[in-house]
Amino acid sequence: METSLAKPKVLGASITSTNEGIDKISYLPDEILHNILSFLYIFYVVQLSILSKRWNYICRTMPYLHFDIIRFGNERVKRLWDWQLAEKFKDFINWVLISQCATNTSLACFKLCSSNFFDKMAIFRWIRVITKRNVRELVLSICLDEPFELPYCVVTCESLQVLKLQLSGDMLKLPNHLGFCQLKLLHLEKVELSNEHLTSSLFSTCPHLEKLILGDCTFGAMTVLDIASTSLVYVYLVNYINNGQSYINCSVKISCPNLKVLKYGAPMAKDIIIENPFSIEIVHIFFYDPDDHIKEIGMLVHKMIKNVHSTSALKLCMGSVSGLYSVSHEVRNFPVTFYKLKSLKLTVGIDEFCMQVMILLLKHSPNLEVLNLFSDENFGWDENWRLHDPSESIVCLESHLKLIKLAGFKYEENEMELLRFFLKNARVLEKLIVVWADYADILEEASEVVLKYPRTSSHVVVTFLDVNPKSKSHYLHSVF
């Protein structure tokens, strides 16, 4: 194996002066240079190889290879037909891989974004090459317009720790024998999974799999998406392209006794079953469904959270909150008591329905420290309706709640009433953040004012994001 050129023993006084014309970057260790170059497209990395023998060596031992045909076409071979571009890109990949063969360098990451320009045989050849080089992370974003059969060399690659597949809706065919011995993260994007048994085996036979992400995936004729693993600690199911049929005909079953994070952002599944939920600490639920399913959503949300007693952070969408209200009088033990819950985030309407659910959750979260509300649609409430009965105790407001963030506010009377409620009842509140709807994405421009409670000697820092002082004073006057 070729070694790099000798470096100075001390990168000190002899090369500290830029007036001496010393190239300090070239004297950096190989690992640091490789890490810096990993942020560049591989074409630019190859261009550096002509600078010197040192840079030629650095490029030929580059462990991060990112090939993107779109970037390649924009930067290198403009005004070519698609087939010419594909051939140029294929030659470029072959040249890079061949030029690195003599160095026998292990690959930290190999990424290929090729759209539908290549047949699968070319892709399979490259995959065989990089698996022999002990690749640790493999990312494929391809479109074959036909089923993609996962190469067996990927399954048996003993060095592979991260696998990300984006197939543009193509079916993923799995081998009958699965054996990812070191895989820690599996991310499938726009993949069709069709075999229940092999899909279940894919998750359960990876002894070190810790993180699973299924994004915009479809499930064909599958009736159960079975996720069972003793090693998984993070599961995220997300579907933004609203493939409702993929979920409405398929149940989701999760049996992961060591799971800590569960995120669900997709259309409502036929059923969601969570077994052994006692280790889950973070739960995010976001359903993409119309209002006519609100009651079914409420039953499903209640079913998902009622046994998750170890949850420290809970996030619910507006559909989930509205759904919980619709079933609040029909289910027993609603809501359950979350003794370990420290952070609660809700997307709500500042109306009677959502506010009742919020109050119920506050009452049953005695140790809550952080409350984050995002105001979506406001319908207000009847002037005779009371947000809270003063005779009823809310423990977290009296002894634990220290931070409240209210985002998406529109300067409406019911929102000001909510502010008055928190300022009056949150006895240990330290900071209140108000984000106007027009500035929901602006976090760096903020003004702060320290308020002295009219009822106590305590103080609270109130932060108004991107509000000018005159408007702020008028708003504070309205609140108080």
From TrEMBL:
Protein name: FBD-associated F-box protein At2g26860-like
Organism the protein comes from: Nicotiana sylvestris
Domain of life: Eukaryota
Gene3D superfamilies (UniProt xref): 1.20.1280.50, Ribonuclease Inhibitor
PANTHER family tied to this protein: F-BOX/RNI SUPERFAMILY PROTEIN-RELATED, SUPERFAMILY PROTEIN, PUTATIVE-RELATED
Transmembrane segments: none
Ranges where the F-box domain occurs: 22-70
